[in-house]
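[job 0412] stage=complex_fold ligand=copper (II) ion status=START
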Amino acid sequence: MKKRTIALVASLLLLAAACGTAEPETAGPAGDATVAVEAVDYGYVDLPEEVPAGTTIALRNTSEAEVHEFVAIRLPDDETRSVAELVQLPPEELAAFFPGLATVLVAPPGEDAIAVEGDGVLREPGRYAVICVIPTGADPDAYLAAAAASEGGPPDVPGGPPHLVNGMYAELTVTP
Ligand SMILES: [Cu+2]
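[job 0412] stage=complex_fold status=DONE, emitting structure tokens
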């Protein structure tokens, strides 16, 4: 367990380095609500369409097999396409949205998530894409080890398409 946690933290740091830093967080209103979200194969259960700024996302992965993540990306104000449309884009085009990265929570199967980027708090009002890009069918331990060893690149681990291809994405609006 400890080994896995270390690998996870290392992979988070690498992921943060790979994705760059989000724009400075603006201090939101004193939102103190926590929303418990469940990650399943393949989607998010109990994720509202809207949450007030300052809401903390607490992710628990109830899958028995898959690692899941909650990658929250604030979309540019002038972006009008739906998240369902955006996830159809090729990975290179999707990557253009990564500067809006707000937080990344990663959870091995059956466990609560650890924040690897940000702290799980959504502070800036706006429209967010929530996605999971873990390769389908990847072995959890192999994935976490590969993420730690990839030096910022995508983890080189056997697996199918990212979970978002299986429908693991959501659109979320953070209200002022
Ligand atoms: Cu997933």
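The longest strand covers residues 34-40.
[job 0412] exit 0
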